[in-house]
Amino acid sequence: MTARDQRTVGAPLALLVLYTLFIAAITLTPQQMGTGPDTLIGHLLDLFAAHRETAWLTYELVEKLGNVAMFIPFGFLAALHFGRRRWWLGFLFGASFSAAIEIFQGTVLTQTRFATLSDLVTNTLGAGIGALLGLCCMAVWPARTARAGADRELAAV
Questions:
Q1: 157/147 Cα distance (integer angstroms)
Q2: Residue 53 DSSP code
């Protein structure tokens, strides 16, 4: 394996570690992101509520969609790290990480955070979607061994 291939193999893990720290910073700190009426999110939700076409876009729906979206990259990067045979671990690790977050919020951060089953479900759904996307990408991309063999053939020419 060339030096370039070794860096490529480690990239999903490095990005996964960084993204895990990002999620932890968002979810495991005592203060939630600004969601009050005087925040950007509050103003956008007021704008959506003022129009009949977008009134269905409530805070609860935005929160659920945000939870799904936040865990899609986690599941994707985990699936890329674990590879084609163990891609499903991205889903499993996403569910486990989400459960750990909810347990921490429900036991340690009880004054400012709320542990909910819907957060666990939506986070896990996002990790599952990300893991499936990772599997799809790996199915389209050539396998590492196939690329290494092709690189050797090209180098021999």
A1: 16
A2: G
Tell me which residue of 155, 2, 20, 10 sits closest to 80, measured CA to CA. Answer: 10
Are 35 and 41 a contacting pair, CB within 8 Å? yes
Instruction: Please say whether the beta carbons of 54 and 48 come within 8 A.
Output: yes
From the number of C-beta atoms within 10 Å of its C-beta (0-12, 13-18, 19+), residue 115 rates as: middle
Rounded to the nearest integer, the mean pLDDT of the chain is 84
Token reading at 38: 């005087």
Distance CA 157, CA 45 (A): 61
- Dihedral in degrees, nearest 10, Cα atoms 144, 123, 68, 35: -140
Q: What is the pTM of this model?
A: 0.79
Q: Which residues of 19-36 are buried (b: 16+ CB within 10 A; e: fewer)?
A: beeebeeebeeeeeeeee
What span, in angstroms and rounded, lies between the C-alpha atoms of 41 and 31? Answer: 16
pLDDT tens readout for residues 92-105? 999 999 999 999 99
What are the angstrom distances between the C-alpha of 157 and each of 4, 75, 147, 152, 153? 20, 39, 16, 9, 7
